[in-house]
Amino acid sequence: MNKTTIAVIGAGIVGERILRTLSGHPEAGAIVLFDTDADRLGELSRKYSVPAARSLEEVFELSPDWVYIGTPPRYHAPIAEAAFQAGLDVLCEKPLAHDEPTAARMAAAAEQSGRLTAMHFPILYSPTVRTLLADVAEGKLGSLMRVELQAQFPQWPRKWQQNPWIGTREQGGFIREVFPHFIQIMSRLSGGIEILSKRTDYPDDPALSETGVLAIGETRTGVPVQFGGLAGAASSERIELTVYGSEAAMKLVNWSELYRAEGDGPFEKTGPESPVPGLFDELIRLKNGEEAEIVTFSEGAAIQKVVDALL
Fold first, then answer.
1. What SUPFAM superfamilies does the record tag this protein with (predicted)?
2. Which contacts (CB < 8 Å, 24+ apart) does range 210-216 have?
3. Tell me, what CATH number does 269's domain have?
4. What is the residue-level pLDDT of the chain in tens, covering all 311 positions?
5. Same domain assignment for residues 54 and 136
6. What is the DSSP string of 212-255?
7. Domain co-membership, 203 together with 292
8. Could you report how far apart the first and last alpha carbons of the chain are, in Å?
């Protein structure tokens, strides 16, 4: 059985995570790697035994099943559009783009090309998040009353994520980098999100990303949503997504810890019921014409609209 082939464009931290995942996947594998940083490209090419390309054209000539784009956000659109023109399907890192108009353009280009699209939202492929989504969908929390996202970062960029763009107002900040993961979940809980009011704080330096945000919105079904984010304050890093229902509440803490409260009882840690297929398993299904759990460029553009409304 032939493996599903992936071209990896972008040799940053997340690009390396993709390479690491693919190195152990039985049915998918990286066949080429490209990055404009020649030193980093060579390092990861040797580490994961993946051939290095000298140009995007060289990547596209290999006709991979999927092109993964893990570059800084403002380069997502031109690379994706070039891949569509080459007749290739695209997996893109989040956020879809650095702003809403560009994300909408990418979604339109994808639709016009007829190519398959997907986005890298890793927590969607975690058992904890699937349990949360399933319990809400099955009415186990009762009627939805409110959804809240709260995030604190003692410093931004985070120590492990130092690069030239992650702290910039043009492309970076925690609203672009972290919030899309949770906006995607919040949108699936009860329809898309509209921001009704917000306050976003920025440092004096116009080149630097936001330091705080407070916002209120609602879903298409009228469920209130609340956003709070703070960077640079005295605190440990903590991210909490809380879903309140009339009968029970659930809380996702720091990406992977799931808690549940019944009635007026306290939150208690709970575990997911069963493992779920990973992203590359779903991409294989999609490529084979089967039903698959993915985030399309169209959904990614809707998420980008919420991100821009918070900035």
1. Glyceraldehyde-3-phosphate dehydrogenase-like, C-terminal domain (SSF55347), NAD(P)-binding Rossmann-fold domains (SSF51735)
2. 210/169, 210/173, 210/174, 210/175, 210/311, 211/156, 213/175, 213/310, 215/309, 215/310
3. 3.30.360.10
4. 689 999 999 999 999 999 999 999 999 999 999 999 999 999 999 999 999 999 999 999 999 999 999 999 999 999 999 999 999 999 999 999 999 999 999 999 999 999 999 999 999 999 999 999 999 999 999 999 999 999 999 999 999 999 999 999 999 999 999 999 999 999 999 889 999 999 999 999 999 999 999 999 999 999 999 999 999 999 999 999 999 999 999 999 999 999 999 999 999 999 877 899 999 999 999 999 999 999 999 999 999 999 999 99
5. no
6. EEEEEEEETT--EEEEEEEESSSS--EEEEEEEESSEEEEEETT
7. no
8. 47
Is the torsion defined by CA of 169, 215, 158, 71 positive or negative? negative
User: Do residue 116 and residue 132 come from a single domain?
Assistant: no
Q: Which two tokens stand for residue 23?
A: 């190195």
Give per-residue pLDDT as tens, 238-269: 999 999 999 999 999 999 999 999 999 999 99
Work out whether the CA dihedral 276, 175, 36, 91 comes out positive or negative.
Answer: positive
Same domain, 267 and 290: no
**73 shares a domain with 131:** no
Predicted confidence at residue 218, as pLDDT, reads 97
Does residue 305 lie in a domain region? no
Dump pLDDT digits (tens) for 152-167.
Answer: 999 999 999 999 999 9
Report d(CA 257, CA 266) in Å as an integer.
Answer: 15
Position 142 in a domain: yes
* Total structural domains within the chain: 2
Co-location of 203 and 260 in the same domain: yes
For residue 306, being part of any structural domain is answered with no
Neighbours of 278 (CB within 10 A): 15
In a domain, 302, yes or no: no
Judge whether 142 and 198 are in contact, CB under 8 Å: no
Task: Give the domain extent around 47.
Answer: 4-121+278-296
